[in-house]
C-alpha cells in the first residue's frame, strides 16, 4: 500500500549536509596547530604526541537532528609516543521533538529579503500584510534515498590559503623552489600576499615562443569568482611599464593594447620582467575584480637568463589597502600601526589613519637643525628602541609661543595619532583592537638666560610601548597593551641682547615586555614545614 511505501521512504536517513569529520571549533590559528585541539587539521602526529587532553572531545553538527554522525576524539597516553584516536559514530537524539530530514532547502542558507519597490509593493503587501502568513517551499524533497552530490560539502567561498582557481587550473605565481630557477607550479593562495623573484632561462632567437615571457601567459585564464563555480572574473591589464636595456622605465599612457615579445635588432623586446597582481574580494570570500600590472623589458642577445619578479596582494571591496605589520601579532622590525578617531563621531565607529598609518618620531638630519628638520619623520619599528634629536639655536629675538608650537610640531609631527593597533593586523572597524595613547607632560628645571619672559618649551618626547606575548606558548603573538607619550618641557628666561644658546631636543622610543613568566611546575609540589636538627648537615655548614 501507499502508506507502507511512504513509511519506508521516511525511515531512510538523509545524507548529511555537514561533514563533522572536517569541522573544528577549536581551530583558531591560521595554518598553525592549536594546542590540545585534536580536530585541528594543521596538527601533525608529532603535535598530537605533546597534547595533554582534547579540549573538544566530541564534534557534532545540528543538535536538533534525530540521527547524525559525531566525531569523537581522544588520546592514547599509553602509546609511545602518545597518539590521537579518532572515531566516527552514529549519535541518536533521544528527544521526540527532533528533525528527521532537512529537506527544506531554503532553510539551509540566509536568503536576502526582498526590498519593497513601487513595482512589487502591492504584491508584497498582499503576501505579508495579513496577521499571519506562511512561506511554502517551492518543492518538498521527500526522496531521502537520493544521496547528495559530491559538491554538497564543498565550500562555496574562498578561505584563507586556498589556491585561487582559474578555468584551467589555478592562478600561477612563479617562484624559486629548489634552486633560484622559476617554477610555474606555485599557486597563489587566497589572502596570502606574496612577493617572489626567480631566474628564467631565455633565448633571444626563441623569445616569441617562450610562454613565460608573454603577457598572455599571465592573463589568458579567467579566475573563478568562488571555487568550483561557473562565474568568471577576467584579469584586466592595469598598467604597463617599459624598461630599456640600461634600466630606464617609462609608463605607457595606454594599457589597452597587448605587447607581445618579438625579436627586433638582435633584441627581444616586450619580454615580461615583472607582474603585480591585485585581487579585490568581498567580505564573504568572493573574488570580484582582478588586475595585473606589467613591467616589460628588452633582452640583449648575450643574455642567457633574466630575473623576473612577481607579487600578489588582496584588498576587500570598499576598503582602503592598509599595510599590515603581522598576522595577528606584530613582527619585529615592522612599523607600529597607528591612527586617530574621526572628530564629531558620537561613538568610536572607526579610526582614520594618518598618512602612512604608522607611529613616527623625529628623524635626525645631517644638519641637526630643529627648525630645518620639521616634517622629517621616521617610522617606529616594533621591538627596536630608537633615539633621535636635533639642536635648537635660541636668540633674544625669538618669540616664545611660536617657538614652543614649532618645537611641538617637530617632536610630535603635524598629526600625532591618538590610537595604536594592538595587533599587526588590527582592522579599523575593530574598536577593541586599538589602544589609546596616554599623553603626559613633565616640566624640567629652569634654563636661565633665555627669552624675554618665562615660558615653557618642549625639549623631548619619550614614547614607551608596553607589549606582551599573547596566545599559545608554542607560537606566542606580540600584542601592544599600553602606549605612553611623555612631553618634557623646560622653563626659559630672558636672554641678553646679542647672545644665543643651543638646546638639545630629543625623541626616543622604548619597548618593554611585560609578559608574565610561565610559572614552574614545582610550585605545585607540596611542602613540609619541619625543623631539622642543628647538626643535620655536620660537618658541612
From TrEMBL:
Keywords: Cilium biogenesis/degradation, Glycoprotein, Signal. GO terms for biological process: cilium assembly; protein localization to ciliary transition zone. It comes from the Eukaryota. Residues 14-120 form the Tectonic-1-3 N-terminal domain. Residues 156-316, 326-513 form the Tectonic-1-3 domain. One of its GO terms (cellular component) is MKS complex. Pfam families: DUF1619_N (PF25752), TCTN_DUF1619 (PF07773). The keyword Signal applies. The keyword DNA-binding does not apply. Belongs to the tectonic family. Part of the tectonic-like complex (also named B9 complex). This is TECT1 protein. It comes from Catharus fuscescens.
Amino acid at each position: 500500500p501507499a502508506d507502507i511505501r511512504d513509511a519506508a521512504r521516511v525511515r531512510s536517513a538523509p545524507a548529511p549536509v555537514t561533514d563533522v569529520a572536517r569541522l573544528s571549533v577549536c581551530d583558531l590559528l591560521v595554518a598553525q596547530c592549536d594546542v590540545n585541539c585534536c580536530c585541528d587539521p594543521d596538527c601533525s602526529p608529532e603535535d598530537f604526541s605533546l597534547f595533554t587532553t582534547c579540549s573538544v572531545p566530541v564534534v557534532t553538527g545540528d543538535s536538533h537532528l534525530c540521527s547524525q554522525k559525531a566525531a569523537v576524539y581522544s588520546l592514547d597516553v599509553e602509546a609511545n609516543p602518545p597518539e590521537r584516536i579518532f572515531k566516527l559514530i552514529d549519535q541518536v537524539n533521544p528527544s521526540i521533538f527532533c528533525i528527521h530530514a532537512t529537506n527544506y532547502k531554503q532553510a539551509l542558507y540566509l536568503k536576502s529579503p526582498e526590498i519593497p519597490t513601487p513595482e512589487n509593493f502591492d504584491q508584497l503587501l498582499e503576501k505579508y500584510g495579513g496577521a499571519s502568513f506562511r512561506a511554502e517551499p517551492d518543492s518538498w524533497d521527500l526522496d531521502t534515498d537520493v544521496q547528495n552530490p559530491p559538491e554538497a560539502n564543498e565550500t562555496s567561498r574562498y578561505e584563507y590559503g586556498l589556491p585561487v582557481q582559474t578555468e584551467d587550473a589555478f592562478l600561477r605565481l612563479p617562484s624559486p623552489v629548489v634552486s633560484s630557477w622559476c617554477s610555474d607550479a606555485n599557486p597563489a593562495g587566497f589572502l596570502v600576499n606574496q612577493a617572489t623573484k626567480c631566474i628564467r632561462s631565455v633565448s633571444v632567437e626563441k623569445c616569441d615562443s617562450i610562454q613565460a615571457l608573454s603577457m598572455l601567459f599571465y592573463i589568458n585564464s579567467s579566475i573563478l569568482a568562488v571555487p568550483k563555480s561557473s562565474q568568471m572574473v577576467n584579469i584586466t591589464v592595469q598598467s604597463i611599464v617599459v624598461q630599456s636595456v640600461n634600466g630606464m622605465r617609462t609608463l605607457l599612457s595606454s594599457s589597452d593594447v597587448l605587447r607581445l615579445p618579438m625579436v627586433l635588432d638582435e633584441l627581444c623586446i616586450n619580454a615580461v620582467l615583472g607582474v603585480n597582481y591585485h585581487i579585490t574580494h568581498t567580505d564573504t570570500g568572493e573574488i570580484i575584480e582582478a588586475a595585473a600590472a606589467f613591467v616589460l623589458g628588452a633582452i640583449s642577445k648575450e643574455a642567457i637568463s633574466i630575473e623576473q619578479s612577481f607579487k600578489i596582494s588582496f584588498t576587500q571591496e570598499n576598503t582602503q589597502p592598509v599595510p599590515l605589520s603581522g598576522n595577528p601579532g606584530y613582527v619585529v622590525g615592522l612599523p607600529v600601526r597607528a591612527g586617530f578617531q574621526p572628530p564629531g563621531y558620537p561613538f568610536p565607529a572607526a579610526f582614520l589613519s594618518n598618512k602612512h598609518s604608522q607611529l613616527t618620531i623625529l628623524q635626525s638630519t645631517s644638519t641637526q637643525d630643529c627648525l630645518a628638520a620639521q616634517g622629517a619623520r621616521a617610522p617606529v619599528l616594533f621591538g627596536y628602541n630608537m633615539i633621535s634629536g636635533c639642536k635648537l639655536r635660541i636668540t633674544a629675538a625669538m618669540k616664545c609661543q611660536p617657538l614652543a608650537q614649532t618645537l611641538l610640531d617637530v617632536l610630535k609631527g603635524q598629526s600625532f595619532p591618538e590610537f595604536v593597533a594592538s595587533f599587526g593586523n588590527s582592522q579599523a572597524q575593530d574598536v577593541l583592537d586599538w589602544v589609546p595613547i596616554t599623553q603626559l607632560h613633565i616640566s624640567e628645571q629652569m634654563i636661565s638666560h633665555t627669552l624675554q619672559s618665562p615660558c615653557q618649551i618642549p625639549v623631548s618626547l619619550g614614547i614607551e610601548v608596553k607589549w606582551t606575548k599573547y596566545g599559545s606558548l608554542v607560537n606566542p603573538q606580540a600584542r601592544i597593551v599600553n602606549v605612553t607619550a611623555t612631553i618634557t618641557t623646560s622653563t626659559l628666561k630672558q636672554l641678553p641682547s646679542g647672545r644665543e644658546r643651543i638646546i638639545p631636543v630629543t625623541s626616543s622610543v622604548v619597548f618593554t615586555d611585560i609578559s608574565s613568566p610561565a610559572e614552574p611546575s614545582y610550585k605545585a609540589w607540596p611542602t613540609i614545614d619541619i625543623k631539622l636538627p642543628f647538626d643535620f648537615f655536620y660537618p658541612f655548614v
